[in-house]
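Subject: two folds for Thursday's group meeting

Dear M.,

Sorry for the delay on this. The cluster queue was jammed most of the week, so I only got both jobs back this morning. I'm pasting them in the order they finished. Each block is the input sequence followed by the predicted structure tokens. Could you check whether the formatting survives your parser before we put anything on slides? The first protein is the one we discussed after the seminar.
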Amino acid sequence: MLVSPQGEGRSLKALGGIPPYSIGVEYEVVTAHVVRSAFQPLVREDWALPITMNILFIGDIFASPGRRIVEHHLQRIISDEKISLAIANAENSAGGFGITPSVAQELFGMGLEVLTTGNHVWDKREVYDFLPREPRLLRPANYPDPLPGTGLWVGKARNGVQCAVLNLQGRVHMSSIDDPFKKADELLKQIPDEVKVRFVDFHAEATSEKVALGWYLDGRVSALVGTHTHIPTADSRVLSGGTAYQTDCGMTGPYESVIGVERQAVLHRFLTQLPVRFEAAKGWVELRAVVIDVDEETGRARSIKRLTEV
């Protein structure tokens, strides 16, 4: 950190080290709290800092409890984490099953820029006509082409950086839709070369399928984060090719439940095998998310960290 007498600093690492015109000027290097120096560093006014490119991805928003906790925390997270692009999976945001146009607009109004989904996107029929009209609401791209909507969004983040968001769905223990690996190749060919920042929500059941697609896309996307199981995994890391990865982001919703559903109903179903009406649970609610720091020039991830709010 370059530190001035006023306690303001800039990162040497981010700037590529001490510039050549700084010879003879003393700097203090700090790792945590900014300290004051008696020496004034010679920093040129036109010395540009790199653009911060932090992506926030919020795991499956479940029903109204999930929406309320997002509303409560989102703007503070965006400010604290210097978020440039806020994404969330919203396939269970309307009553725990599907999404409606009004719920999608509610989530956009909170400050989310892109919403991804999964197999439950089709649960509410009123969203069918809305999908083609709202490009920020994605459905898995590897559903057959005649279905409404798209699985790819390309646009600008808050900091002006061009970004792409891809939505794919797995096939192991799920519907036999199109191959997500081949569909990922097709989508990447559609993205302009200058768009380096690329995020993938892979909505899948099997951990093996998620890990496999992570390695398949390593170095070609900035991040791949899994959804669908509602259980957060502890394997967040940056793969060797520069792709940030986590098998499942987890659920944003009620955790005194069975993956969001009122637990007594689920227990009754397991014990009797009789059909029951599933309803969203109440009680303890958590927000589960990841924050990914991306180099906007190369598209490679610098880091990924898990985030939990209560």
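Second protein, same layout:
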Amino acid sequence: MSNKRFISILSDYGFKSTFGNTTSTLFLRTSIQALIKSEVPIASVEFDRSEITGLTKSNRGGVFDVSCIDDNGDNYIIDMQLDELKKFIKRSTFYAANRYGIITHRGDFLFEKLKKIYMISFLNGVVYPDSRELHHIGKLRNQHGELMGDEITQVMFELGKWNKPVEEIKTNLDKLIYVMKVTHTLKDTDTFDPPEFWSEEWIQEAIKELDLRAMTPMERDYAERQIIKAVMYNTSMKEREEAMRERDELKEQLTSQITTSALNFLAIGIPPQKVAEGLNISLEEVLKIKNEHQGS
């Protein structure tokens, strides 16, 4: 039986429930600041639509993971790429260029006042195998390396290259990648001695969204349904298989939790109908649990 403790932040559901958390944006803002290597904290952000609709049948559309605008008007598009890494540069360029076009269509044709666009891509693998660099930040430059424009900045992080020991983690960027790569590997049965930064407010904001133990049966059911929904839209076989695997694990854990709760309620004399209402399941399911565990 699966005893997974956290939902993977690399999954569609996990990524959007942390980076796309509309209740509090501290995790998102701190992550962006680390990824773009800014010394200035981002005070606030507002979420923008994360879908590009083609203007005609032949126009290409697209859906990215998170899109937001900060208090200065700068735009951030954040996307997770699990596979098909060879195509991600064209894909991220398309997303950034589309946003640049939207800004001008909004009526601001004073080019010196155009706000910046940051296209941030997490890549679950290695794109540049011959380079030791794993955090790439690029802008338009000429053949001499001189800046030609900073309107669009491409930020890429190769997760497949990161393997820093926990005792060497100092920066917020390393803390972020640690959470992304390590959290979902933990099991309920593991003896986990969390690093000091684990208790930092922005990290805890994400952990609480991913912690299966903190979820009620209804919240787990919602997470499962969202993963199923994501499967319907995944075109990559690898993404589909990963989403299906995570869905099955969540379903198994949800069933186990409901069974345990139902048996505990029945053991203290609560009528089956009341148990069904309390757990938001049918009376038939409660009676089935009761009969299967009779005398055990």
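Two things I noticed about the second structure. Residues 139 and 153 are 5 Å apart (CA to CA). The two ends are 19 Å apart (CA to CA).

Cheers,
T.
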